[in-house]
Amino acid sequence: MNNQKQQKPTLTGQRFKTRKRDEKERFDPTQFQESIVQGLNQTGTDLEAVAKFLDASGAKLDYRRYAETLFDILVAGGMLAPGGTLSDDMTRTEFCLFTAQEDLETMQAYAQVFNKLIRRYKYLEKGFEEEIKKLLLFLKGFTESERNKLAMLTGILLANGNISASILSSLYNENLVKEGVSAAFAVKLFKSWINEKDINSVAASLRKVGMDNRLMELFPANKRSCEHFSKYFTDAGLKELSDFARNQQSIGARKELQKELQEQMSRGDPQKEVCWQEEMKKANLSEQAMIGIIWTSVMSSVEWNKKEELVTEQAIKHLKQYSPLLKAFTSQGLSELSLLLKIQEYCYDNIHFMKAFQKIVVLLYKADVLSEEAILKWYTEAHLAKGKSVFLEQMKKFVEWLKNAEEGNPLDGRTVVRLWSVSHKSNTDCVFSTEILKLCSNLW
């Protein structure tokens, strides 16, 4: 028998000591703000010294955690409360963007401060964009002078690529738009942006983020017209911006017209030329622009045969149906040339149509859509480089025939083509003069 007492089990636990680095630090921007404000007060208006101070302070202060506080101080002199007012219980500095001189040169110098700071601390880039978005929403809380400085700075930053044009979405805030704050701010912003770059750079940046078609939204709904936009910005000295907006609206109108026309054609609805002429006037489009829309819609409304030998026949049959519509929008020589260039481009881009070019042109010539003058003009000087050698070779005999018909044939060239076509298809006993038969045989 074992006289030894059995040892009783004991419950033991292990205390885990939280590492200092894992402790959750309380968000308290007070000390951070005091450090930044003190440094800015010491550097004063010397922006080179400000940039050096901010560069050095990033190693000691937590920029990542207090990015919003940092940018608030640099712009407004202290932390901003909701609405754009300065927090009363926080230390402020008089050396910030809002207290600086209101001129482009000073704003360019401030832009350099922000540029250097963000290049040095890349993680601040996103926070800076968010800050600009927030500041734009707070515009009503700032004075007119403060808005002007912020607008100039924002335009310079956009021109330099420091921020994305997506920040402009804040300007579409209903209250800012209603009170005219957005439009007035946009004038100053775009002026400084175009001053740094040009309208092409502005247009590219706006397109990149889908803002190119939203400029009208800077105005209330009852003033959201191309005429009002154009007058407002032209009077403010920004004619290039108003021209850009007008062009964008025209592009939008074209897309809508093309979509509607294509849908009708796909359904097989009869096309009324008069209705589309009215639509063209409403959209303020030229006949040249409209013929391009019609051609694209006509060629997009059908599924084409993949076999080259069959697609030409299909195209001729399809285009015959819409030749009256095409004819209604080729009353001018420029419109005819525009259509010829569209046909050339289409046949080049769609390889199955390469051999169909000449037959399409002859069909439209017979249907009074294209004139001798337009075809000859296209052939001699107005053609595109795309597929030039192929298409000119295809058209060579037809063009020679047109020239001969113009010079020596008593009958109209189009009449000869129609007569040839009838006799060729019906194989009847139509009697032609030797001269006409000779002309027709030269055509193909």
Q: What does the model show?
A:
This is W2 domain-containing protein. Residues 1-15 have a biased composition (Polar residues). Belongs to the BZW family. The protein has 444 residues and is mainly α. Helices cover 63% and strands 0% of the residues. The protein has 20 helices and no strands. The protein has helices spanning 29-43, 47-57, 67-76, 104-120, 124-137, 144-159, 174-178, 181-196, 199-208, 226-235, 239-267, 273-282, 287-300, 308-328, 333-349, 357-366, 372-382, 388-408, 413-426, 434-443.
Global mean pLDDT: 85
Tally of alpha and pi helices: 20
Q: What share of the residues lie within helices? A: 55-70%
Question: Span from first to last CA?
Answer: 126 Å
The outline comes out as elongated
- Based on secondary structure, the structural category is mainly alpha
Proportion of beta-strand residues? under 5%
The biggest sheet amounts to: none
Based on CA atoms alone, the radius of gyration comes out at 36 Å
Q: What is the H/E order?
A: HHHHHHHHHHHHHHHHHHHH
Poorly predicted runs: 419-444
Number of DSSP-assigned strands: 0
Question: What order do the helices and strands come in, and which of them pair?
Answer:
Layout (H helix, E strand, L loop, with lengths): L28 H15 L3 H11 L9 H10 L27 H17 L3 H14 L6 H16 L14 H5 L2 H16 L2 H10 L17 H10 L3 H29 L5 H10 L4 H14 L7 H21 L4 H17 L7 H10 L5 H11 L5 H21 L4 H14 L7 H10 L1
Helix pairs in contact: 1-2, 2-4, 3-5, 4-6, 6-8, 10-11, 11-13, 13-14, 13-15, 14-16, 15-17, 17-18, 18-20
